[in-house]
Amino acid sequence: MKRIVLIALAVGALVAGGYLVREQFFEKTTVTLERGYQGEAAYNPYFALRELYTGLGAPAETTSGVQRLPPNNHALILAMDDRALVDKEVRSLMDWVRGGGHLVVPASHFVVAAPFLDIVETALFDEDEDDGDDARSESVFRTQRTTWPKLVAGDRPVIRSDGEDDAAWVLSYAVGDGQITVPVALAVLRNLQIGDEDHAELAWWLVQDRDGGAPAGVWIAYRQAPVSVWSLLIQRGRPVVLALVLLTVAGLALYARPFGPKHEARPRDRRHLAEHVRATGRYLWDRDVEHTLLRAVQGGVERRLARGGQPNPRQLVELVKQECARSGADPERLHAALTLPSTRDPNQFTDAIVTLEALRRKPS
To answer: Which of 197, 277, 346, 358 has a C-alpha 20 to 30 A away from that of 223?
Structure first.
């Protein structure tokens, strides 16, 4: 029991000492760590803009691409810049605008905005000099940037403008029963920038109708929906597809064309072994490999004469004399056949083979 009490006192002393050291030598501070955007805001750069419009009374949603369009009393912001719209999509958007829709397309996203800038006769240019903060004090397009490109209006009447017609930040045109609004850029309305200065006023000004009224809703298309290979081929690759089809048909016709008359099937017959041997010999002779056969026969006879050994030239002469004395063969002819190198003379080659084979077949 006494031991347990002593251990408890020691632990309490250590804890108290640690607390005193912390209070004496350490200071409590608050540190703010940037975690970045979480959830949808991490991948949707216009998440804050959508929530802003919804809070202002115009229900907003973000979409991918323009395959599906909102009702005609809505505003559609094209915030895409990853690929150009195909002709079918441009025609569909213009029909929607003429029916009463409000299209907002930034000029800085030139790949997407180009066909609409041509329709409303608007050009984008960079100014060499800064107009200064005073020039933007009356503009809804307030930004911390000191310079922005400007818009130049053509002959088409402008129904709303932020700036002058020859140097504006936003221009709006009537098209049929709807309108097309062209701001210089939408970068100031992304998640990172929308809280700087008074961008809420700009965001609301962009989607107002001709009379300054609020839209029934706002759609923000900020990325393109993936386009299938087949739709691209049908819309833009018809000449290529036609050329491939014609080349395939021409290739098949050329490949299928017969090369002369058919050969008649020869009757099957049996060949003699001598014919196979003759054909093999002619094949070897035509390819200069007769020395292989000659050397094989010479080696076999030499080993027979030497009883399995490999005689030298002097021993070979003595062995030839002994064999000729025993068998009655011509020693000069046998020696010539054993020492004949590779030859292209058919008579000389045949005579050597016949001489050597006659000796090899005799019993020892």
So the answer is: 197
